[in-house]
Amino acid sequence: MARKLPRKDVVIIGLGWTGSIMAYELADAGLDVIAIERGPWRNTATDYPPGYAADELRYRIRHELFLSPSQTTFTFRNKMSEAALPIRSWGAFMPPNGVGGGGVHWNAETWRFLPSDFMLKTHLTERYGASFLPEDMTIQDWGVTYDELEPHYDRFEYLCGTSGQAGNIKGTIMDGGNPFEGPRSRAYPNPPQDQPFGHTLFGKAARDLGYKPFPQPSGNMSRPYQNPLGVRLGPCTYCGFCEWFGCGNYSKASPQTTILPALVRKPNFTARDNSEVTRINVDGSGKRTTGVTFVDASGDEWEQPADLVVLSAYTIFNVQLLLLSGIGKAYDPAANTGVIGRNFTHQTISDVVSFFDPAKFVFNPFIASGAIGMCIDEFNGDNFDHGPHGFVGGGYMGHVQTNGRPIETTPVPPGTPLWGAAWKKAVKENYQSAIKPGTGVHGSMYSYRDVYVDLDPTYKDRFNRPLARITMDFHDNEIKQNKFLTDKFAEIFQAMGAKQVHKEYRKGPYDITKYQTTHLCGGAIMGTDPNTSALNRYLQSWDVPNLFVMGASAFPQNAGYNPTGTVAALAYWAADAILSKYLKNPGQLINA
Amino acid sequence: MQRRTFLTVAAWFVGTTSLTRASAIHNHIPWAPHPNSPPEVVRPGPWQFFALDEARAMEAIVDRIIPPDPDTPGGKIAGCAVFIDRQLKGPYGSNQGLYTLEPHTKGTKEQGPQSVLTPAELYRKSLAALDKHCKSTQGGKSFAELDAAAQDDLLRKIESGEVKFDGVDAQGFFSALLKDVPEGFFADPIHGGNIDMVGWKMIGFPGIRYDYRDWVNRHNERYPHPPVSIAGRAEWTPAKS
Ligand SMILES: Cc1cc2nc3c(=O)[nH]c(=O)nc-3n(C[C@H](O)[C@H](O)[C@H](O)COP(=O)(O)OP(=O)(O)OC[C@H]3O[C@@H](n4cnc5c(N)ncnc54)[C@H](O)[C@@H]3O)c2cc1C
Ligand code: SF4
């Protein structure tokens, strides 16, 4: 029997990026808040100090800061006709674990989506006609607009101290920024980071080709910064151990470096670590949650009653908990009914590796940060006419090489033997003069009827509960998109003077062993119609009004950018709705 | 859920996190002035996983995967076999942290590895099979006793699938080597390989220096400083008497 804890106003499931934002906003308004986190507490000084944070084997190869699949995993198949099998070791994505969530070891590439991304279905249908879209594509409008989210994007960027160059301030196009971005109310809080040699050359070549390159918006500090909560970050030292690693310098925006020091001082906030929520409890009516059940590290079960539940456990864990708790109608792709698990998406990533003359180019690839480099946005979203190309969507592309760590980043020209003297020679010759961007082409993935999440009939987790099952494959639209973008991207390296350019197109079938990004999206999407969305435009559950669900699970489809800027903006937007609307009159905020 | 399930469940947490006790954090940051998870430094000494003849074969193999050349030692002197020995003895060798529950079914390539075999078992079985293969086809010689050309020839045939082993996937073994040997050559020396940072010196990787603010704007200029490991540099550590 679960032991019952004293009631709280709010229980937050998962203390990552969105959990921290929600906890701060709600505690700051005076509510009694508890956050329950599956993984351990983490601090810079004790968990990833500079003395040993830079251990490629430990953190990149063995992924020590991440969830262990033994704790929980998912099953995967490409097609509904196949039997899904468990992901025994991580591949295509890498789920976070522990206080700070993905914020601890992300790159901090901090983007906004395009205004048209939020009205995608309407926008594309108006421009190209409904018949231009593939029949089984299930894209939707979000129910919220860019203009509504703008102040909340701004809050996140000023929380993080994002380093970047604005491209559009209140409608005025700014030199050196991204001219395609939606209007922003003010400049970034910090100037862009310095750009190493190769990244600078890429920017120059892109400009010569007629593009408008701009620095990657970065949560790695270009200078010391104190945020509005009074928390201070130090300047980034371009250490080259950023993505997959905690920052030993307090220079990467994370819950630890932006929110938690202020949050833990609030007397009305409590966190519990090493405790996994196993169920969101619902009362007899099925229309109200009464709190959550969790299991602590000793294996003891507890019930935490609360008036309001915020689910912020990361995309796919959100979907899994909703399915396991029986909240909302599970999606059935055959009947095309239900919403939980529907419109699940990932990203369409590819790369171009290029080799330059070692006698002329020394790139020092180890001098880099997690969100460095020059990007172009000409081929993102609907920034170009798709009419002649026969696909929709797109992505940013850029030379965003984030490291020269030698286990991961010792590229050799195609055709080189995989071992022996020739391999060794090629590694040595090319290390300083090759370019291998991280996510070079960062393409969108739109939603389809047969790409979704449900519960697996066979495989169980350590609590003997069904694993979540992912059914996912690339569709022609994304394959075409990627071919077009990758070719454009390669032209820029050619123009830089590379002697050999190797295109690594993304091809189907979707492969669960190949890392792309940890940008899983959808499965509990927001929208205007309870028949096709799990949440209303304030991220409030249509079925259980005292439950709000954060994270990219709310994205109806994924855009050609990294998600967290938008994920955080949505969290601030939801917090605002809770404080200004919900608390005054607890109940469903939208009458559908 | 039953209490008994939870008792077994508790074991899953232990060893996977730095702070394994759940705690309530209120009014303070739970900070204590010592690292939660300092690195474990591999010490030289006897083999911990490999038997002596396995170790001999491994040292020969790593020296063909990464052969010595006039500027840089090969895998053997770089300590790649020691690195793999310690890795196989540790969590990696036993698939610790991976999802290992039944049923094990072979799926598509896109669904990823489903084998029950741990890396430790893969190496043990493969090295035995390699030994058997060598002794029966090379006039009773073990792999380590072959000359370099014959070793390369055999490894190439394993790589291509031409030579198969009894009861274990020879190509799977070769794939593991192609991952594990370069890791030993390039991982921080605290893990037992990359001795004297030879792998890093070969390519000009400065290790864990962590601060390049003085060099980020010096475009196309080779970074001049020698590498540093988590354990520092040999010059910083007085020789033991
Ligand atoms: C290597 C890597 C690099 C990335 N780089 C970028 C980038 O450059 N730009 C970008 O925009 N995005 C990036 N991301 C994605 C980014 O990390 C996520 O978008 C972001 O962290 C999502 O915030 P969240 O609050 O939804 O989830 P998280 O920050 O992951 O937090 C969820 C928390 O919930 C906890 N939790 C899960 N289940 C339970 C449960 N049942 N009970 C209790 N707690 C639970 C988890 O342990 C976790 O701490 C990256 C991700 C990774 C892994
Ligand atoms: S690159 Fe900068 S922000 Fe990233 S870990 Fe290193 S010092 Fe920190």
Q: What letter string, H or E per element, gives the SSE order of chain B?
A: HEHHHHHHH
What summary fits the major beta sheet of chain A? 8 strands, mixed
Percent of residues of chain B in helical segments? 25-40%
The whole-number mean of residue pLDDT values of chain A reads 97
Q: Regions of chain A with pLDDT < 50 over 5+ consecutive residues?
A: none
CATH class of chain A: Alpha Beta
The hetero molecules present are: flavin-adenine dinucleotide, iron/sulfur cluster
Oligomer: heterodimer
User: Please, how many helices of chain A?
Assistant: 12
Name of the CATH architecture of chain A = 3-Layer(bba) Sandwich
Q: In angstroms, what separates the terminal alpha carbons of chain A?
A: 39 Å
Number of strands of chain A: 25
Query: Helix count of chain B?
Result: 8
Structural class of chain B: mainly alpha
Radius of gyration of chain A: 23 Å
Q: What is the general shape of chain B?
A: globular
Q: State the total count of DSSP E strands of chain B.
A: 1
Show the largest interface. Answer: A-B, 104 and 94 residues
Query: What's the pLDDT, averaged over the residues of chain B?
Result: 90
Helix-strand blueprint:
The complex is a heterodimer of chains A (592) and B (241).
Chain A: E1 3-4, E2 8-13, H1 17-28, E3 33-36, H2 44-47, H3 56-61, E4 74-77, E5 85-86, H4 120-128, H5 146-160, E6 168-169, E7 172-173, H6 197-208, E8 214-215, E9 225-226, E10 232-233, H7 255-258, H8 260-263, E11 269-272, E12 276-282, E13 289-295, E14 301-311, H9 315-325, E15 342-345, E16 348-355, E17 374-376, E18 395-399, H10 420-430, E19 434-435, E20 441-443, E21 452-460, E22 466-471, H11 476-496, E23 500-504, E24 521-523, E25 547-549, H12 564-582
Parallel strand pairs in A: 1-14, 2-3, 2-14, 3-11, 4-22, 14-25
Antiparallel strand pairs in A: 4-5, 6-7, 8-17, 9-10, 12-13, 13-14, 15-24, 16-19, 16-20, 16-23, 17-18, 18-20, 21-22
Helix pairs in contact in A: 1-12, 5-12, 6-11
Chain B: H1 3-13, E1 24-26, H2 52-65, H3 75-78, H4 80-89, H5 119-137, H6 148-160, H7 170-186, H8 198-203
Helix pairs in contact in B: 4-7, 5-7, 6-7
The complex binds flavin-adenine dinucleotide and iron/sulfur cluster.
Flavin-adenine dinucleotide binds at residues 13-19, 36-39, 94, 96-98, 101-103, 105-109, 243-244, 276-277, 312-314, 317, 321, 371, 518-519, 550-552, 562-565, 567 of chain A.
